[in-house]
Amino acid sequence: MQYSHLFQTYLYKISLFSLSLLMFSACQEKTAEINLYTHRHYEVDKQLFAAFEEQTGIKVNVTNASADELIEKMEIEGDQSPADVLITVDAGRLVRAKEKELLQTMTSEYLSNTIPAHLRDDDNQWFGLTKRARVIAYSKERVHPDSLSTYEDLTSEKWKGKILIRQSNNIYNQSLLASIIAHHGEEGAKEWVTGMMENFARRPQGSDRDQVKAVMAGEGDLAIINTYYLGKLLKSSNPEEVAAGESVNIFFPNQEGRGAHVNISGAGVAKYSPNKENAIKFIEYLASKEVQKVFAQANYEYPVHPEVAASDLLVSWGEFKSDVLPLTKLGELNLNAVKTFNEAGWP
Amino acid sequence: MKQWLGKGSLQRFFRDMNRWSVLVLIIGSFIGLPIFIVAYQLLKGPGEEWEHITTFLLPHYVYHTFFLIVCCAIGTLLIGVGCAWLICRYEFPFRRVLDWMLILPLAIPSFITAYAYAGVFDNGGTWTLMMAKLGIEVQKIDVMNLSGLCWVLSISLFPYVYIGARAAFRQHAQQFREASHLLGATERKFFFTIALPLARPAIISGLLFVIMEVLNDYGAAKYYGINTFTTGIFNSWRDLEDLPSAFYLSAILVLLIFVLILLERWQRGSRSYATVAASDGGSKRILLSGGKAWFVCLLTVFPLLAGFVLPVAQLLYWVYYTFWDVLDVAFIQLIINSFFIAFLAALLTTILALFFVYFSKWTHLSGVRLFARTASLGYIIPGAVIGLGVLISARMLVQGTASLFDLRIGFLLYGSMLTLVYAYVVRFFAIAHQTIEASSAKIGSQFFESAILLGKKPILALKQIDFPLLKTGLLSAMTLLFIDIMKELPLTLVLKSPDVQTLAIKAYEYIENGDQIDKAALPSLLIIGAVSCFILISNRWLKT
Q: Considering only residues 105 to 144 of chain B, which have any Cβ-Cβ distance to chain A shorter than 8 Å?
């Protein structure tokens, strides 16, 4: 009965309190700000945003979620959307946002001059900010780099039971397959998928990092991963991860041909952006030399700014030729890629 | 017939209709709306990718889902019934503590157990490291596969069976044991021919809970890379961008659950299991001694270790070196937010259920019971499906108000906390409804009726008479709701928006990003801590 007394008195108070909280959050004041919708979930981004605030006095309100959710949110919000900038971790989602007419054309001389044409939208609706290559990490102990050549070669007999790669619902795999569809057509892509599946060391599972760990554990010899994951393993505070990172080397495939598959993390200005000028300023900031350096140094991504060098670690992996397939293609072919994976039964 | 359908029935309808009926209808439709909307969506037919899904994906979904159901049923039965029997029949060291501690695995959402297990046994995991330190060569224990998932789900869900079996054994075993003993039955014979058949209804309904949770699971299956119906719903919605087909998959899933429920009803049949209420004769347990006692103790400790201690230990280990990376102002805000949402939803559900129970008592409208049933379907329908139903309802409302009244309220409603709270109300209404109905039945209606005869208005009578008597029931309903809401993942995942975060979502995001998997430990432990406390509290209530 004592409980119930407490329950009754506090009930009213708590409900009143929560109601006032709701009201309070509804009517906050406005200052110079931008509302950023981002899928990037890296620690270094927070520091960069704080630095931007300090430099310009423009407050960055970050909304963090997956690109799909962010796009859906923008769709529903329509012309009421507070979103100014959308950042995704792959080109495909930016293409989708463009198709849904959620972005607008940016006129920025700086961005158009700095960022290479294949890393941005034809109508300047989005710009790539960092590059990441999807490459082969091979066991230093068991594989000689001379035996590696192309993505297509991974399906050959000699790699039976050696290949580690994550599941097909992963966007990086989908983009890689989309690029293969673009180059070889659907039939060729299908052959590649079945060939890969025959060479799996185990059922696809886990993240890119887990693939490298599995190479160290000897479950397979080759891991298909994005470059920055290796950087993160090597710089990890966990000695086990460092050891895993050290057990492999990077190989950039298709150097004789079209180049290694590259995707971007990029940004666009929302169609109904209430703070358009600040939004462009913000994207220019992210493409500036200093910030590009940070992306390269702290997050092991390849900068898009041609004058900014990659981090020492990335440089140590060597220069590489990247596939210049327009990234728009990756977005257009994403659904085909998903279906090709499903049809072959890639988990 | 014509008469019944025509004027007569209408007349009867209006005769029986009072304001309580209207309120019941309003609350019921409010709760039932998303479910009706999902049903309505089915009329539109499946989407473009349906053929692709049925040809290439559905067979995997069916196979994996059935495999999981069968294996988890066997697993939870063995562990749950076994433990309940040992606890109820024998006296051995730590029995009293184990009695309630065996419920604790329920405090961990299964996706968190799954992820902790991977952390222990995967490459570079705690187990491998420990063995390497000790210099022991061991084969890698691979948990991230179908059988690993079965194990994880069984070990985290067996308490449902345990609770049911324990209650039944306590009630029946004592009365019949003496009789059967006198008649010369052995312990084994007594178990298989008397105790187990008598406990069957309780065990089976526990099992039904297990299966519904297995079907509801998204996080664990996704993380281990097993495609089930629920992951398929997400797949076709997100990856294939085909929402209508996602509804069709949902419909198959719900149909499957209906079949299971019918099976349960059928096995119970018309048999009645009523017995004379027996006191829990705790003193009459068989006293075990020496090695035997410790062996039984070990047997019952094992599920607790595997289902609770091991995952929690792994999480604590992770928290130890990620604590300061995770904890910041935003995270504290998230904690408050998460608890607030759970509290608000629990409160709202309880209030609605209270009114629903009483208003339907005061209405004379026939068919209200059936309506109540439909309204409380939410609990058997997987969270992902409810989530999609609410999503579509919100979308329709937003579009409707936009086109009819030119009201742009979408951004207020859609993806806001309100939508999520509403979805929780829909999903967990049945729990509150059942608990409150049971406690109100215990009170009976004599006080209330006397008050009415003496001229009180029903609402006042409810407030002054039944409400004070109901308080324990209401609080226990809220506790149960709070536990379920804190643990909920799939529904929250559908409706989560960038503006609304819960601890479960935060944990899931850390796990999914793969980048910072150990950081998920702190939000996970907070959920486990809170839920454990509430489980213990409600356990106390059940006893008194």
A: 118, 122-124, 128-129, 140, 144
